[in-house]
Amino acid sequence: MRVTFIHADGKGRTEAEAVPGDILLDVAQAHLMPLEGTCEGQMACSTCHVIVAREDFDRLPPASEEEEDMLDLAAGARRTSRLSCQVVLTEALDGLTVHIPGESRNMQGAR
Ligand code: FES
């Protein structure tokens, strides 16, 4: 299965191969996307925040309340924002496109 990352500049893109069961954050980091993922999936940092393409968003299972709470603190969060550490890839998500937020270049303390 394939995932496309749109870089923070909005222009560059990286096509990544993944297998079902992979965590979106791990795939992003393996392809050198600038997502820190500081808390390693504990939903305590939001530095793994990505913006899912609008047309793909409904294919994802809904975010948990904890994830929603953490997304409220994410820099540049939008309606289709998700924490990539909480997204487990499945065949149903083949072709997923996610945007790396511009803010991830300088995330600390930014809003
Ligand atoms: Fe910290 Fe996802 S890695 S919330």
Provide the fold topology.
Blueprint: E1 2-6, E2 13-17, H1 24-30, E3 49-52, H2 65-71, E4 81-83, E5 96-99
Parallel strand pairs: 1-5
Antiparallel strand pairs: 1-2, 3-4, 3-5
The site of FE2/S2 (inorganic) cluster has 15 residues, from loops.
Short descriptors:
5-stranded mixed β-sheet, alpha+beta, Ubiquitin-like (UB roll), disordered C terminus, 111 residues, binds FE2/S2 (inorganic) cluster
Report the helical percentage.
10-25%
CATH architecture identity: Roll
CATH topology (level 3) name: Ubiquitin-like (UB roll)
What Rg is obtained from the alpha carbons, in whole angstroms? 12 Å
Quick one: CATH class? Alpha Beta
Describe the overall structure:
- The protein is an alpha+beta fold.
- The chain has one domain (2-104): Beta-grasp domain (Ubiquitin-like (UB roll)), CATH 3.10.20.
- Helix content is 13%, strand content 19%.
- Strands 2-1-5-3-4 form a five-stranded mixed β-sheet.
- The longest helix has 7 residues, at 24-30.
- The chain is globular, with a radius of gyration of 12 Å.
- It starts with a strand and ends in a 12-residue tail after the last strand.
- 32% of the residues are buried.
- The model is unreliable at 106-111 (pLDDT under 50).
- The structure holds FE2/S2 (inorganic) cluster.
- FE2/S2 (inorganic) cluster binds next to loops.
- One of its GO terms (molecular function) is 2 iron, 2 sulfur cluster binding.
